[in-house]
Structure prediction request, 198 residues.
Amino acid sequence: MDFRALVIIMMSAVLVNNYVLRQFLGVCPFLGVSKDLKSSVGMGLAVMFVMLMAASVTWPIQVFLLDANGLDFMQTVVFILVIASMVQLVEVVLKRFLPALFASLGVYLPLMTTNCAVLAVTISNINNGYTYIEALVSALGAGLGFFIAMVIFTGVRSQVAAADPPEAFKGIPITLISAAILSLAFFGFDGVIENLFR
Prediction:
């Protein structure tokens, strides 16, 4: 296993191909939960866990069950069922051990079942032809990228709220403009991965 390839996969998933800021997947919890730092950290960690667990389960299912039996057309349905199971596990754990965080995440936690970023990670791991270890590294990087985006955007939103924007921009307009500017900042990482080991 080439360590450089794993570093490139990880850095690419975190910075260059960030699922929320570059590919605009998983925007619903990104915008909905990023108002307060505790909720953002909780959601970021929950998404990271679900992405990692979903990748660890879906890769063997795809390779040893679906592909082996000519059932690859069932990929999306099976992957959504696996993701829904992982989200249920996270919900049970949070409700039992962290009830305040469970309450603050509200409707966005069950919505993670259909979070397109989680589904996109599992499908892109298969489409990119990753090995099992590469798929896990990619999922961890995608989750870490989501976590970083959530935490950074929480700071941006608190600064914007403290700046007292004009009345026409308050609420959703300034939030979307802030998200767009943050997204543009991540476009600055283009070319970093290609030159990482030169």
